[in-house]
Every structure is written in C-alpha cells, then in structure tokens.
Specification:
This protein is an alpha+beta fold and about 500 residues long. It has 3 domains: about 1-225, no CATH class; about 235-365, Immunoglobulins (Immunoglobulin-like); about 375-500, Sandwich (Immunoglobulin-like). Helix content is about 15%, strand content about 40%. The protein contains 7 helices and 28 strands. It has helices at about 1-20, 40-55, 60-80, 255-260, 325-330, 375-385, 465-470, and strands at about 100-105, 105-110, 110-125, 130-135, 150, 155-160, 165-170, 180-185, 200-210, 215-225, 235-240, 240-245, 250, 270-275, 285-295, 305-310, 320, 340-350, 355-365, 390-400, 405-410, 420, 425-430, 435, 450, 455-465, 475-485, 490-500. The strands form 6 sheets. Strands 3, 4, 5, 7, 8, 9 and 10 form a 7-stranded mixed β-sheet that branches. Strands 22, 23, 24, 25, 27 and 28 form a 6-stranded antiparallel β-sheet that branches. A 5-stranded antiparallel β-sheet has the order 13-19-18-15-16, with no helix packed on it. Helix 1 packs across helix 2. It is elongated and about 80 Å long. The termini are far apart. Mean pLDDT is about 75; it is low at about 1-70, about 75-80, about 85-95 and about 370-390.
C-alpha cells in the first residue's frame, strides 16, 4: 500500500510539472484568473530532486534551477515590503528589447515592467528540443512603486515595439479597487480607451510578447492623473567648463530607455549634477535614491538597501554630488573600478508647492573611488571584522574665493567624546597605492585641540591650495587623527574625494 501511495505522489508531481506556468500564476500560490495551488512549487522541487538523482543536469537546466531559487528569494523580499518588478528574461526578435510606451500631450512615458512568465524552446546537450517554462511573480498595482504619472490628454495612446500575441488590461481607482468591468481583452493597444478625464486611476497591462524562440509575459503599470503635466527636468554637469546635458525621464520605468548605450554618458565620480525645472518651478523637497543598474535598467543588487539622501536647494536650485556607492563594494563588483564600469541610476522624488509630486529618473555611466564616502576603507574593514565603528566621515570639495576648499565632516557613532587638532593629512591614489602629498614650504597650523562631542558631528574646512598648492586631477584621501577622551586611544579617520 505504501509503495502504491508513493507512486501516486510521483505521478501527481509529474503532471503538475508538465502543466507549466498558468496565466496569472503568482509566487506563494497567489493567482489572478485560474486558481493554482502551492503544490506546483513543491512538485517542481520533487521533480528536480528525482532528476538530479538520476543524471547530471546540463548547463541550461542548472540555469532554470537558479531562476527558480531567485524567484523564491524574491518572494521572501516582497512579503516584507514593496515589490521590485523583475525584468524580461531575454531579448526578443532581432535583438530588440520589448517595450511599451505611453504618449500624452507631447510627452513619452515608460511604464513599470514586471516579468510574469515565459515559454521557450531550447536545445539540450543531446541536441533534443525542450520546452522550458519560467515563472515570475504577479503584482497588484498597490505593490508597485515608481509608476510614471501620465497626465490625461486627448492624444493619449499606447505603442509597442515588438509583436504581441495577447493583451489583457484593467483600470483601478485611487484606492486600487477594480474600475468598470474588471480586466478585459484587446487585440491591439490602440483599441484601449482611457475612460476618465477628471480623476486619478491606475492602468495595468498584461502583455504576451512573441519571439522566435517562444513567448514572454509581462505586466506594465502606470498612473493617469487629471491635472496638467508636471515640470520637465533638465539635468547637466560641468565637463571642462561646458555644461553637458544628461538624459532624464519621468517615472522609474524610464530607466529602461535611458540605459540604452547611445544615450549613456560617462560622468566621473566627484562631479556635480545640476537640476533645472521648466517654467521656473522649484520643488519644496527632493529625495534622491541611488541605484546601481544593469543593462536592462533594473537594479543590479535588488536585495540591497538603496542609498537615499535629501537634497537642499542652493541659490541656483538643486544639485547632487556623485559620490561612491557602497553596494559596489559590499557585493565585490569588480567592474566598478574600471572607467565607466557601472551604470548609476538616480531617482529624484520631488514635491512641488502646489502639492503635486513627480519621480524623475537619471542614468549615466561612472566608476568608483577606492574609498567609500561616508564609510571609508578603515571603517568598512572595522564593520566587516565586527569591531564597531566610532566615527564616519565625508569629504566634499568645493571652489571657494581663495581656491579649492574641502569640507571634511566627522559623524560620531559613539557616546564618547573625541579630540582632534588642525593638522591635516592628504594622500593621492596612484593605482591601489597611496602617496602622501607634502605641505607647501612654510605651512603651519595652530596647536589647538577641538572636541567632537559624542553622537554629534563636526565639520572642518581646509583650503587645499593654500596648504598643498595646485592639485592634479585624481582620487584623494583626507585624514584626521582623533583621540578618545575617555580611554586615550587614537585612531585615524578618512574619507575619499575626487578632483576633476
């Protein structure tokens, strides 16, 4: 009896695996449309175990298993917070990336994309063709962050750049409740009629793309707003005295288009990005998220915590300093040390005086300094060794009236007080090595002790040209020796910066 029961379980597992990916399949057993139980995942794991016990998997089969494990990891992440949409797994016909665009009132918007499923024909090591299924997680509109806000206009329309075999669409009100008759099917994107002109609502498109090797399914999300368009953002940086424009777009989905090779520009670490808004608009607040992107415009490290800073408006508006990104260090991303080795994405969440909000996307190529910004190499090593960090530091160069200045800020992470003096120490990276920069002849400083109070910060301004003379472009490290006033122990704290 036990043997028959086991055979029945194995047979059931085989049926479930062969059934593949149903439309509407979600991670964790959630469904849209047909109901699919969590037994699919369990059955696939059982089948994988049976196959690995009988023969060695081919490279492609291993890849499929890795995708399944990635999906499980994504499930764990999305259960804890907002979902990070997945990208399309392959480039389709003629190597062109499938993309949906929304046109309205003369502007172009790129919806947020989320991979849901694929069915492709692959050839195994023995030369036999196999049908391979891959499943992603279906998202609800309320789980998606960074949707572009599309102002309603009479010329509003949708376009796609690749063949489509199926289109399902739905509208949701501002509370994410299905609007109208629920999801409907359309033969073409231009058949979809946007129903409201005077209210906010969300749009979901479920599209199945055709390719030479099979089909790929994706969801697309964007928001329709009744009020007029938000200001356009122009981003620029100073390249040898010339202001050069950096492409930007509205909504997180714009990264997909901005990362195309012919649009990406190389901007060195240590540069400043200047933000100018059309019609003379100036946001009352700007929050900037820093993301390392892959070539598809998605996060290279989706499980890493993004660096978020609040920008302060200056006399000329808002600007952002291109500092290092810790994730390229934590994940041992070696390409970061090559010129233009990484793609950085900045998401600027802006709030305007009239209450409107907008998210702008900016993408460019850059590299990484050898140090770690507010967490320099010494602090990074202490963190990895578990010895604790007493003081974080940050170096920011600026042009002053009397030459190049450096603002060196120390942030205490300890309850103890620290003392420090005026003596500076400056080094320059020459490859992986550090070379100390000598003082100008006759340079001196006051023999005065200053106090960094526990859990507080202290900033030191140094005129670099007066102390060291003209400095060549390159990576630099500025350091200070600080002494714990409670136990008398001294340590050197450092922060890196770039001179262009």
């Amino acid at each position: 009896m036990k043997k028959k029961f086991i055979l029945m379980i194995l047979a059931l597992a085989g049926i479930l695996v062969m059934s593949g990916c149903f439309e509407g399949l979600k991670t964790g057993g959630e469904t849209t449309g047909d109901s699919v139980s969590e037994a699919d995942g369990a059955a696939k794991k059982l089948a994988d175990g049976m196959e690995s016990a009988g023969k060695e998997k081919s490279g492609k089969e291993k890849t499929e298993k890795e995708k399944t494990e990635k999906g499980n990891a994504e499930k764990e992440k999305t259960e804890k917070g907002d979902a990070e949409p997945e990208t399309i797994k392959e480039l389709v016909k003629y190597g062109e990336r499938p993309m949906v665009k929304v046109y309205s009132d003369g502007e172009t918007f790129i919806p947020i994309e989320n991979f849901t499923s694929s069915e492709t024909i692959q050839t195994d090591a023995a030369g036999s063709e196999q049908t391979v299924f891959d499943c992603g997680r279906w998202l609800r509109p309320e789980e998606v962050i960074g949707m572009p806000q599309v102002p309603y206009a009479g010329d509003m329309k949708l376009e796609a750049n690749c063949p489509i075999s199926r289109i399902i669409y739905g509208f949701y009100d501002e509370n994410f409740k299905p609007d109208g008759e629920g999801k409907q099917e359309a033969e073409r994107l231009d058949e979809i009629i946007f129903p409201h002109q005077d209210m906010l609502y969300y749009v979901e498109l479920d599209i199945t793309w055709e390719s030479e090797s099979g089909e790929t399914g994706c969801q697309y999300f964007f928001k329709v707003i009744p009020e007029g368009r938000s200001p356009m953002l122009t981003v620029s940086y100073d390249k040898d005295g010339t202001m050069v424009k950096v492409p930007s777009g509205k909504g997180k989905g714009a990264f997909q288009e901005l990362v195309q090779q012919d649009k990406l520009q190389y901007i060195p670490i240590g540069s400043w990005l200047n933000f100018d808004f059309s019609d003379g608009s100036t946001p009352v607040s700007v929050s900037l998220s820093d993301v390392i992107l892959d070539e598809s415009g998605n996060s290279q490290f989706p499980y890493a915590e993004e660096k978020v800073i609040s920008l302060q408006a200056g006399t000329d508006g808002y600007s952002a300093y291109i500092d290092t990104n810790l994730n390229v260090m934590y994940f041992r991303y070696s390409e970061a040390y090559q010129p233009a080795g990484i793609i950085r994405g900045f998401l600027a969440d802006c709030r305007f005086e009239d209450g409107r909000t907008e998210t702008y996307a900016i993408a460019f190529k850059t590299d990484a300094a050898f140090g770690l910004g507010m967490e320099p190499s010494s602090a990074y090593l202490m963190l990895m060794c578990g010895t604790g960090i007493d003081v974080f530091t940050e170096s920011k160069p600026q042009k002053g009236r009397e030459g190049l200045e450096l603002i060196f800020t120390m942030y205490s992470n300890s309850a103890d007080d620290f003392s420090y003096g005026e003596q500076p120490m400056l080094q320059r990276f020459e490859g992986p090595e550090l070379k100390e920069i000598p003082f100008l002849e006759g340079t001196g400083w006051n023999d005065i002790a200053y106090t960094l109070v526990g859990k507080k910060s202290a900033a030191v301004k140094v005129n670099l040209e007066q102390v060291y003379g003209p400095l060549e472009p390159g990576y630099y490290r500025f350091s200070k020796v600080i002494t714990n006033m409670q136990n008398g122990r001294s340590q050197t704290v450092s922060a890196d910066f770039v001179i262009n």
